[in-house]
Amino acid sequence: RKDFIHKLKVALKEANENLYWLNLISDCYECEEIETDRLKKESDQLIGLLVVIIRKLKTNDTLSEQAKPES
Q1: How many other β-carbons are positioned within 10 Å of the β-carbon of residue 49?
Q2: Which one in 1, 9, 58, 64 has a CA-CA gap of 20 to 30 Å to 50?
Q3: Which residues are CB-contacts of 8 (< 8 A; sequence separation ≥ 6)?
Q4: Per residue in 9-36, pLDDT tens?
Q5: What's CA 3's distance to the chain center, in Å?
């Protein structure tokens, strides 16, 4: 489970980098604003999903650790 959370964090880092480059491209080059805006919106949505999933998994891990009986 911790490995899965780590992989999700890597995906989140990549999604943030993707958004950075999309912003840079749209600022530096004259391109179709409609297309870059759509891609930036999709990146924002993906980032939001990854953040929620990571938080939920971490919360569930914390709760399950607290519920374990001490030996």
Answers
A1: 14
A2: 64
A3: 50, 53, 54, 57
A4: 999 999 999 999 999 888 887 766 677 8
A5: 16
Any residues with CB less than 8 A from the CB of 4 and at least 6 apart, and which? 57
**Token pair 């999604």 in the structure block, residue:** 15
d(CA 16, CA 46): 9
Give the Cα separation of 36 and 62 in Å (integer). Answer: 39
The backbone region for 61, taken as left when phi is positive above 0, alpha when psi lies in -120 to 50, beta otherwise, is alpha
Taking only the tens place, the pLDDT of each residue in 40-63 is 999 999 999 999 999 999 988 776
